[in-house]
Design goal:
By secondary structure, this protein is an alpha+beta fold. The chain contains twelve helices and 15 strands.
């Protein structure tokens, strides 16, 4: 039978994710309630009556026109190793046309290439290397290569110059595996052994200094937000409003009471670092982080990361995801400190396939891209 795509209930959408074991939190039904400036819809892919995949489609209307960008951030949720991926993509486009979409944007959320810590460190130390993609990956996943070829064959396009944080969801991410090759959950001793010496030393220093990490409540999001804005000013980015984090907390934890957590690291009663963690099944994400300008010597950021890693591991997660990195590894790259901090955990850099667009209406799609460039 041919693959079709049609709306499904939020309950059926979530049930599929639960049965699968994990999916990006950006593809849960709850995420539509977080992104209120988009209109969200749960869709399912069907082979006859058999549900073969799901997706959260987010619609953004063009100014003055009832035409929409249909966006599936880090989705759809499919078994990308299937032999009929092309039929699923064609069904999605056909469905989007019915919804008056001028373009469809997807972001297949699975690893295509991996770089292990030793490779990353060597790349950082090599003055002739400025981007991670200049270095041979330690692993290239065949399924990713095949899906990439299918997307190109079907007429999808991607901007491979937009590997930074401005181009939708990041193509490059940093992940710490929590299970060994045989599927056994790693022990805390094994996780510590995988970290670099500096990261381990900073964890010990935080403990010696008396840094304590605890879970926070919704009301304490305001404390997190206070030092988050301090971090934004220090690091030169525009911070989100407190209301955004409160909406995120309410929506995600209404779907699952342990979906989103707040962590607070304190030293002698002073808040020195704060983070949020999101978990969907066997995948946990470090989503937002903040630290104060004072008391940086007590290493609250290392202590809080270690606690989140331990909690994700105790929950049986396969992956602790430190989210996006840029692929720049040059000494003068503005984000080099971020990748150096994350590589200290012993994790690996992972490249997804990136985000791909299908132009349903080419003139409108071209105008949309021109508008984004001018903005």
């Amino acid at each position: 039978m041919s693959i079709t795509c049609r709306p499904i209930s939020s309950e059926r959408h979530l049930d599929f994710i639960v049965s699968r074991g994990a999916a990006s939190f950006l593809q849960t039904p709850a995420w539509a309630r977080v992104k209120k400036d988009w209109r969200g819809e749960s869709v399912g892919f069907f082979d006859g009556d058999n549900l073969t995949g799901v997706g959260l489609v987010m619609y953004r209307q063009l100014p003055k026109l009832k035409r929409y960008l249909a966006y599936l951030p880090e989705g759809p949720v499919l078994d990308w190793a299937r032999s009929d991926v092309d039929a699923h993509l064609q069904a999605l486009v056909a469905f989007a046309k019915e919804r008056r979409a001028f373009a469809v944007r997807i972001g297949p959320a699975f690893a295509h290439r991996r770089w292990l810590p030793a490779t990353i460190k060597a790349a950082i130390a090599d003055d002739t290397v400025t981007r991670l993609s200049q270095v041979e990956p330690d692993e290239t996943v065949l399924v990713g290569t095949r899906v990439r070829h299918q997307l190109l064959h079907l007429g999808w396009t991607t901007d491979e110059t937009g590997h930074g944080f401005a181009a939708g969801q990041p193509m490059f991410n940093f992940q710490l595996p929590l299970r060994s090759a045989d599927g056994t959950q790693l022990t805390e001793a094994e996780l510590l052994k995988g970290m670099n010496q500096l990261f381990r030393r900073n964890i010990k220093k935080a403990a010696k200094e008396g840094v304590e990490v605890r879970l926070g409540t919704r009301a304490e999001l305001a404390d997190f937000h206070r030092i988050y804005l301090e971090t934004a000013q220090r690091d030169g980015f525009t911070g989100r409003a407190l209301a955004y984090f409160e909406e995120m907390w309410d929506a995600l934890n209404a779907e699952d009471p342990d979906r989103m957590r707040l962590y607070l690291a304190e030293h002698d009663g002073d808040l020195v670092a704060a983070t949020t963690m999101v978990r969907v099944g066997t995948h946990a994400w470090y989503s937002y982080g903040a630290s104060t300008n004072t008391k940086r010597e007590v290493r609250g950021s290392n202590a809080i990361q270690w606690q989140m890693i331990r909690d994700a591991n105790a929950a049986g997660c396969e992956v602790y995801d430190l989210r996006g990195i840029t692929e720049g590894v040059g000494a003068d790259d503005p984000e080099i400190g971020l990748i150096q901090f994350k590589v200290g955990t012993g994790g690996q850099a992972v490249a997804y396939l990136g985000e791909w667009d299908y132009a349903v209406n080419r003139p409108l799609y071209a105008a949309f891209n021109l508008y984004l460039k001018r903005r």
